[in-house]
Amino acid sequence: MPPPDPSQPADAWEHYATYRRVIDAIYAAPAHFASRTAIEGIAATDLQTLNT
Predict the structure, then answer these.
(1) Do 49 and 37 touch, CB atoms closer than 8 A?
(2) Residue 25, Cβ neighbours under 10 Å: how many?
(3) Residue 44 included in any domain
């Protein structure tokens, strides 16, 4: 099976502005949450950073 093609819709697509807002919201979401939970010395909010 070939890997997925990470293509984006054309800028002229009528829903492109909504598409961009959804993508921006997904990337901004982790910045809106805070946690004091520590997992073996690592703050839970740092787990995403360690995964990238």
Answers:
(1) no
(2) 10
(3) yes
Per the structure, the count of domains in the chain is 1
Q: Is residue 45 part of a domain?
A: yes
5 found inside a domain: no
Ramachandran angles phi, psi of 7, nearest 5°:
-85, 160
Output the pLDDT for position 14.
97
Please identify every stretch of the chain with a pLDDT value under 50, giving residue numbers as ranges.
none
Question: Does some domain include residue 30?
Answer: yes
Please give the span between the terminal C-alpha atoms of the chain, in angstroms, as a whole number: 24
* pLDDT score at 52: 61
Q: pTM for the complete prediction?
A: 0.51
Measured in degrees and rounded to the nearest 5, phi and psi for residue 38 equal -115, 130
Q: In which domain, by residue range, is 29 found? A: 16-51
